[in-house]
Amino acid sequence: MSGLELSAAVVGLVAGAIEFIKIIKEIVGAVKGQIPRQIQHVVDQLSGVQSLLEQAQRSKPSSDLVWLSVKDDLERCNAECAALKELFTRILPTTDAGKVERGWLAGRAIVGRTGAQAEKHLVVIRKTIVTLQTHYIIDTSGLLQDVLASLETLKLA
Asked: Looking at residue 49, what is its pLDDT?
């Protein structure tokens, strides 16, 4: 695989992950206020992940070896974003869902430990972000305030 093909493949993986996050946010946005807190916490963190992935998409690493070293991580990240999308599609009610369907889906989400599953997917996605930062593909120094705000939100919950 040439350097150009590798770069295109990696940027395509990043674009795919970003698209999955956008879809997840659309799904959740359609049912505001009607999802479990743990799932909302995961969704809230996806905005930061999306902005970092967009930064990675615009990045120009110093060599093709950098892209090669993160390709597997980005493939996993893309798969985890797809799994999150599938999970949210399965457990969140549609905007025209009735009261019974909403209750059933909420119960299913709690019993099925959907929040814990979503957190597991998010852990893998975060590891990818750390890998991208380690290889200087993205700069996460500006995110410290976001992380501290998230921690403060968890304390209040």
From this structure: 87
